[in-house]
Write the structure tokens for this entry.
Amino acid sequence: MSRILMINVPFSGHVNPTLPLAAGLVKRGHAVDYICSEQFRTAIEKTGADFIPYSSFPAKPTMRQNKRLSFQAAFNTAMELGNEYDLLIYEMLFYPGIKLAQNLQIPCVRQFSQPAWSEASMKNASKLFDLSVRLIDAQVMGKKKRQSMGLSFSSMKDAVLYSKPDLNIVYIPEKFQNCRESFDETFHFVVPRQKPITGSIEIPYDKMKPPIVYISLGSIISSKRFCQKCLRAFGNKDVSVILNTGKVKPEKLGDIASNIYAYSFVPQIEVLEHADVFLTHCGMNSVNEAICAGVPMIAMPFVNDQIENARQMERLRIGKRIPTLAASTEEIEKAVEEVWKDKTYKTNIEQIGLDEYKNPEWENIVEQIEILCNQKIQSHRTSCVRR
């Protein structure tokens, strides 16, 4: 049995994709500790891993505090634990992870919750994506924090590109990776199956007539104006709509037509099993879940990797992009009709999903992690004998 330390930043899109690996390692008999914010305690403990909260961190942080304080808190917490571990596993956004592993004198593994970065993929990315990367870095790090952690790189972009461990797990379909040829054999592409999240609502799928359109802009973005635009676009039309309103309470939207089912929480994996079209903000978790369910998409990206994900969706012809929030009711309705009626979208996304089901990488990844752990254990035993 190995002792493995996992560490992450407190954002759903970066934590959720890593949970199947935590569960898989625990199932194989390894002891896994997972450092994150209190918000993710329940989800992490469900994997069988032991949850370790950030030290000196607010119990109920604001989004601003999550961005400004979590990186330093995560780093400090791991350093306080010491080097009693055989391996460190970190998510790419927490780019000090590789330096932390060096400090603890243990090997490390990096996880990507979004498409991986290379010099070629970054050159091919949009200017808006590059700007998003710089903005995130300014919000979460800064010169003083980088110095206190002893980081040798002056930016997130350079750190992710040029300080890579020997094993990098990318949680996307291989076909979805931009500039795939620019990544060497240390990068492995796999989409582990997420467990459905159940809720208290019962959605009456049996009362819905096709096509069923699922609309969700993720857990962070909520827009009353956009929700009302969807009501106008699809109300009393020959279509059924499941609308995730997020932080907007459905009762605040006014009259809702009988063919539209609005909820402030939606069990997404379950809904996608019934949906015909998915209008999404293009977060990678949502894209992966749509691919696994074989549901073609309409892309409405906002920031970060969402922009590049939308480009890849169009390139692979598994979805169609429309203007973010500024799209008219006519544009939204027309896009749904096109993606529903042109079966090329459905065929393409189902094929990518089938390819993923055949992907043998998951067991290979776990075995490589165990090899890294065994190397650390053997090295420790050798040093003890020498003493």
Notes: The chain has 16 helices and 13 strands. Residues 3 and 31 are 5 Å apart (CA to CA).
